[in-house]
Amino acid sequence: MKALELGKQPLTTVLEQHPMVADFVTALGFSAPDEHISLSQWLAELPDEALFDAGMERGQILDHLQRLVAEVQLMADRHAERIDSVTLIGGRDKSGRAENLELTFRAGEIVCIVGPTGSGKSRLLGDIECLAQGDTPTGRRVLINGTEPDDDRRYAPDRKLVAQLSQNMNFVVDLSVRELIAMHAHCRLVSAPEQMADTVIACANALTGEKFSADVSVTQLSGGQTRALMIADAALLSASPVVLIDEIENAGVDRRQALELLTRGEKIVLISTHDPLLALRGSRRLVIRNGGIAEVIETSERERQNLRHIERIDATLMDIRERLRGGQRIEEDIAWPN
Ligand SMILES: Nc1ncnc2c1ncn2[C@@H]1O[C@H](COP(=O)(O)OP(=O)(O)OP(=O)(O)O)[C@@H](O)[C@H]1O
Questions:
Q1: Mutate to test the pocket of ligand 1, among 122, 168, 289 (most ligand atoms within 8 A of CB)
Q2: What is the rounded distance in angstroms from the CA atom of residue 238 to the CA atom of residue 286?
Q3: Would you list the domain boundaries of the chain?
Q4: How far is the CA of 114 from the centre of ligand 1 (A)?
Q5: Are the C-beta atoms of 103 and 97 separated by less than 8 Å?
Q6: Which pLDDT value is given to residue 295?
Q7: Which residues fall in a coiled-coil region (predicted)?
Q8: Whose CA is nearest to atom 31 of ligand 1?
Q9: What is the tens place of the pLDDT at every residue in 198-210?
Q10: Which residue from 19, 62, 66, 318 lies 20 to 30 Å from 282 (Cα-Cα)?
């Protein structure tokens, strides 16, 4: 849209269709009249003192608003780009032996990464996070929708494809949970940020045993609450179609629900874990040895049946944990599910 065209539009329409223009007008302390005049007409009628106070020249404002609208549109277009697949092209292990493989992960898929300590699980997540192009110690390459990502995609912070939820997350801002999430929703151009924040918080509360209020400061959240909040935020608000998770065990988070929430958004989820509830939920798992992907195991039907059994055992354990938390004794004969 040209500056002239934006200027010709009725002011009320501009403010309605472009909330950031309304924010800009309010921030400068201008008040918009009710009558039906065009944006240019309204600018022409603004008193000189108002412009002086705002530190802007009359001619600059229309041009500035035009650029603002164009930039926000560009951001929205970028967020709408669809990622259907991520392809990993093998590199080499720590001894320099070739991995000789090409793996494609599709939207909605959960892939688990297993392997001993120091074997290279985080390195693999790191390669995907930076969309490696043979320029990391493993020599791996990553393709997006089957093609090599351009530098803009690799390095522009607002085009990040990958959200990484790391094990330790600390907030340094003193905002309430609602303020922080609403701020994120605002940046993501969600039309009702406060409402979206409430949805994210409700989701996070469904994931954690220790519920928290929207008004609590983020610095007061426990590790499990923080993790639940970040998972809900990544699932509902993040533009990143790929989510990498370095372990979510022992964090007081309902792991099954967390994964369901993440994959419902058609994201690709890669998770480094040895938790059977998570590792057997994935469609396949990558076995890492000596820095290389040594094996790719498809989850079998028998393993899925075992997963259901493990879930029942886990529910019994969770119940015992809850009772201990509530100060109860555990003295009965425990009936383990078959
Ligand atoms: N293919 C490789 N070539 C060279 N170095 C590698 C390779 N893979 C991993 N490494 C290096 O090995 C070290 C250990 O890897 P990493 O931290 O990824 O292991 P991990 O499996 O995540 O360990 P932990 O389970 O203890 O977190 C890192 O310094 C990493 O950069």
A1: 122
A2: 25
A3: 3-79, 308-338
A4: 12
A5: no
A6: 96
A7: none
A8: 123
A9: 999 988 888 887 8
A10: 318
